[in-house]
Specification:
The complex is a heterotrimer of chains A (549), B (172) and C (107). Chain A has 18 helices and 20 strands. Chain A is of the alpha+beta class. Chain A folds into four domains: 104 residues, Sulfite Reductase Hemoprotein, domain 2 (Alpha-Beta Complex); 165 residues, Sulfite Reductase Hemoprotein, domain 1; 90 residues, Sulfite Reductase Hemoprotein, domain 2 (Alpha-Beta Complex), CATH 3.90.480.20; 136 residues, 2-Layer Sandwich (Sulfite Reductase Hemoprotein, domain 1). In chain A, strands 1-2-5-4-13 form a five-stranded antiparallel beta sheet. A five-stranded antiparallel beta sheet of chain A has the order 3-14-15-12-11. A five-stranded mixed beta sheet of chain A has the order 6-7-8-9-10. In chain A, helix 3 packs antiparallel against helix 12, helix 6 crosses helix 8 and helix 16 packs across helix 17. The mean pLDDT of chain A is 96. Chain B has one domain: TIM Barrel. Chain B is 26% helix and 16% strand. The longest helix of chain B is centred in the middle third of the chain and has 12 residues. Chain B is globular and about 55 Å long. The termini of chain B are far apart. Chain C has 107 residues and is an alpha+beta fold. Helices cover 26% and strands 30% of the residues of chain C. Chain C is built from three helices and five strands; from the N terminus they run E-E-E-H-E-E-H-H. Chain C is globular, with a radius of gyration of 13 Å. Chain C starts with a strand and ends in a 9-residue tail after the last helix. The mean pLDDT of chain C is 94. The interface between A and B is large, with 43 and 46 residues. Bound molecules: iron/sulfur cluster. The site of iron/sulfur cluster (SF4) has 13 residues of chain A, from loops.
Chain lengths: 549, 172, 107
């Protein structure tokens, strides 16, 4: 993975020192809260329901064992012994004190980490596929490109005060594992007919209160024009994006109101002025960065299917292998998803001890590398088949062995009204009740792949628009109420889920989910997953079953 | 001009006694007027102009491209930040400098606070006029705090990747 | 039971949820909040709010609805009750772990 050189180290140290100064000025009253708030947000510090919350950047979801141990240490020392992994592949701490935040940034800087631009109206953490570099279907490793974009966007002097936040994701395989069309800018790295590298750039996608699918801007961007093209999009957005209404300020609204074609022309006009200029010279960096992402020293003798003997006698282990491991480009290896969705837990939460354990396991059964997924799980990318049984046992002992990756209980759940200052309803309790209702591995496996995503308000941090089943918490005259949506997808067949009908209270929601699953089971044909059945039969049968004829 | 407003000079500029004018006629009788951008065309239609040099004040929605024809007659451009969270002025500055080749003085005014100065400097501003309540010493200190930049912009500061090529075993 | 208002905020330095008390300090306990029934009472809350914000003691202040029952003062809205108690999914955290708030269960 990427290693900081002295420039990078200095940059994060400068940032930490600067934030310390900002906090001191705030406490001394030299900065008002209105003046300070955007500054602290650009350093990932929110004021939430119970305390400050600090969001730490995990660039494109990649962590070393050492960094994971530092995250555990921070949870133990400055928080309440746990952290929450987010859908943007970051981690957030829920109980931070303002006075501790500068020290935490120093701690992070010591392991090449930071909280830069994890919030605020600027370019946020670049997200990417959790299996980058190991997936068999990838055209190339997207991470060096993510790092290039990360550096370009860090402290970008022109784009620190955009109309609204700006999220970029990079994918490099035919399977979309990042939600390319649901980002402000989504990038897919491809090969053209001649086998040359090209970037497809989508703009104007997003979730939130007005979900929109990103539009293809160009599919022919060459590597040495990538940064100028991104800069052109950002400049047009910074100049013309709406600033009169917070809810219309995302680039999706600008693209929509300007019109896709006209927006493309405006970007092209800007791009022609800067294409091949100084910003594109940054591409010289690419080779240096890419050298950090060379393949680790894989065991060329790794025995293929060495875990099969255990699987034959242990169905629970076999189920875990089936759901939580992915074929690796190197024979005899698997990429393992560690579920952070135990049925009695909180989606995405991990205790300090669990983080330390995962760090150890990443070294014992891999090359000391860990990934955070947008589905709020962790990944050990390079596990030998022969090590799977021992890894499974170790994970199981830590409460991390749930074999539900991709299944109904592998829900994406935002913090909701238990933590979030913007929430309308709690998300976690309803997720826990659903997990309890379906707490039966045979039943879950029979139901198969379902993406259930829950948000506690219209801001959609829980990606409810993109769930096969989405749940949106609303406030109905002072009580929590949940709307159910069906038919969303954040993958290559991106679609936005549609509201089924009137909402339910918590228990009613759990019942309705069960009814919906029953309809699917009764109607599915030849191995269809939930989404395929929904797309074939439409919403009507579900409506009828849920609301009565 | 607020006489006692503190300003931070990113580069040396010729000092001048600029005066804000609301109308073109008023500006024409002023030695160093600063005129709102939308008064500019009237100003250039006047015959009796006694100004020594001309300054223009932009609002965030001014299309800077509209100044192209007159740019060589403009000595000063003030870019207004009505709220420091409105970042349009950064793009205006870069477009003026990098696309339009504006060589005159570029000045940030309005809600100019400390933690935006480093961005202003990089986007091609010569001068930032601090908001009244801002402590200039704190501003100078904050500005000195940053030495590493990752991307080229309108200043001549080389980004990290360019330095990397020349500096090996670079120590701080 | 009577309806009224209380003043809540977060402490600037720590982020802790606090409530203005009758003595004019800040308590982490909602049931110790100064209860404002009349418009004049609310004016007192507003004055205290402005003063504490200006002194950089608290942030994110809000005058919220509350009720006074035999057991004490308690916020009305679900959101504010969660702030007063702690996350409903983590009984070990927040005031619910520090104090006996059982009198306000289901309040
Ligand atoms: S979706 Fe709403 S409730 Fe959930 S984390 Fe985002 S803002 Fe908070």
């Amino acid at each position: 993975m990427y290693q900081y050189d002295n420039f990078d180290k200095q940059a994060v140290r400068e940032r930490a020192a600067d934030f310390r100064d900002q906090v001191e000025r705030r406490i001394a009253g030299k900065l008002s809260e209105d003046e300070f708030k955007p500054l602290r947000l650009q350093n990932g510090l929110y004021l939430q329901l119970h305390a400050y919350m600090l969001r730490v950047a995990i660039p494109y979801g990649l962590l070393s064992a050492k960094q994971m141990r530092k995250l555990a240490h921070i949870a133990r020392t400055y928080d309440k012994d746990y952290g929450h992994f987010t859908t943007r592949q970051n981690i957030q701490y829920n109980w931070i004190k303002l006075v501790d935040a500068p020290d935490i940034l120093d701690e992070l800087a010591s392991v090449e980490m930071h909280a830069i631009q994890t919030s605020g109206n600027c370019i946020r953490n670049i997200s990417s596929a959790q299996f980058a570099g190991v997936a068999a279907d990838e055209v190339e490793d997207p991470r060096p490109w993510c790092e290039l974009i990360r550096q370009w966007s860090t402290f970008h002097p022109e784009f620190a005060f955009l109309p609204r936040k700006f999220k970029i994701a990079v994918n490099a395989s035919p399977a979309d594992r990042v939600g390319v069309k649901l980002h402000d800018i989504g990038i897919t790295i491809t090969r053209n007919a001649a086998g040359e590298r090209r970037f497809e750039v989508y703009a104007g996608g997003g979730q939130g209160r007005t979900p929109m699918i990103g539009k293809l801007m160009r599919d022919d961007i060459e590597a040495h024009h990538l940064l100028s093209y991104l800069e052109a999009i950002l400049r047009v957005y910074n100049r013309y994006g709406r600033r009169d209404n917070k809810y219309k300020a995302r680039i999706k609204i600008l693209v929509h109101e300007t019109g896709e074609d006209k927006f493309r022309e405006e970007v092209d006009a800007e791009w022609r002025k800067i294409e091949g200029g100084p910003v594109d010279a940054d591409i010289a960096e690419f080779g240096r960065i890419a050298d950090y992402f060379t393949a680790p020293a894989y065991d060329t003798e790794a025995q293929v299917d060495a875990h099969k003997a255990r699987a034959a006698m242990d169905p629970a282990f076999a189920a875990w292998v089936r759901h939580n491991t992915l074929a690796h480009k190197v024979p005899g290896y698997k990429a393992v998803t560690i579920s952070l969705k135990p049925h009695d837990g909180i989606a995405g939460d991990a205790t300090s001890d669990q983080m330390d354990a995962v760090a150890d396991l990443s070294e014992n059964f891999g090359f000391g590398e860990i990934r955070v997924t947008h589905a709020q799980n962790l990944v050990l990318p390079d596990v030998r088949d022969a090590d799977l049984p021992a890894l499974y046992d170790a994970l199981f002992a830590q409460g991390l062995g749930t074999a539900n990756q991709g299944l109904l209980t592998d829900m994406i759940v935002c913090p909701g009204l238990d933590y979030c200052a913007l929430a309308n309803a709690r998300s976690i309790p309803v997720s826990q009740k659903i997990a309890k209702r379906f707490d039966d591995m045979d039943r879950l496996q029979d139901i198969g792949e379902v993406k259930l995503k829950i948000s506690g308000c219209i801001n959609a941090c829980g990606h409810h628009h993109a769930g096969h089943i989405g749940i949106l918490g609303v406030d109905r005259k002072g009580t929590e109420n949940y709307q159910i949506l069906l038919g969303g997808s954040a993958e290559e067949d991106t679609s936005l889920a549609k509201i089924l009908g009137r909402g339910f209270d918590e228990d009613g929601t759990v019942d309705a989910i069960e009814t919906i699953i029953d309809v699917y089971k009764a109607q599915r044909q030849d191995g269809e997953n939930f989404l395929a059945t929904y797309r074939r039969i439409g919403a009507e049968p579900f409506k009828e079953a849920v609301y009565g004829g | 001009m607020v006489a006692n407003a503190h300003q931070i000079d990113f580069r040396d500029v010729e000092p001048a006694e600029w005066t804000h004018c609301e109308t073109a006629t008023q500006a024409a009788q002023t030695a160093f007027p600063v005129l709102p951008a939308d008064e500019l065309s009237s100003y250039f239609e006047l015959n009796d102009v006694n100004s020594v040099a001309l300054g223009v004040r932009l609002s965030p929605d001014t299309e800077v491209e509209a100044l192209a024809d007159r740019l060589d007659q403009i000595a000063l451009i003030e870019v207004d930040f009505p709220a420091y969270t409105d970042g349009r002025g950064y793009s205006q500055a870069r477009v003026l400098r990098e696309h339009m080749g504006f060589q005159g003085e570029l000045r940030a005014v309005g809600d100019v606070l400390i933690d935006q100065l480093r961005f202003m400097k990089r986007c091609g501003f010569d001068v930032a006029v601090l908001a009244d309540h801002v402590d200039p010493d704190d501003a100078e200190a904050a500005l000195k705090r940053y030495g590493v930049w990752y991307q080229p912009a309108a200043d001549d500061r080389p980004p990290a990747h360019r330095l990397r090529r020349f500096v090996q075993n670079w120590e701080i | 039971m009577s309806a009224g208002h209380i003043l809540t905020a977060n402490l600037l330095l720590t982020g802790d949820v606090v409530f203005l008390t009758p003595a004019g300090d800040w308590s982490v306990r909602a049931d110790e909040a100064r209860f404002a029934e009349t418009e004049d009472d609310v004016a007192v809350l507003k004055a205290a709010e402005a003063k504490a914000v200006a002194a950089n003691i608290v942030v994110s202040t809000e005058i919220i609805g509350a009720e006074k029952t035999q057991v004490g003062v308690w916020p009305t809205r679900n959101r504010e009750q969660i702030r007063a108690k702690g996350p409903t999914v983590h009984e070990a955290f927040g005031n619910q772990a520090r104090f006996d708030l059982s009198a306000f269960e289901g309040a």
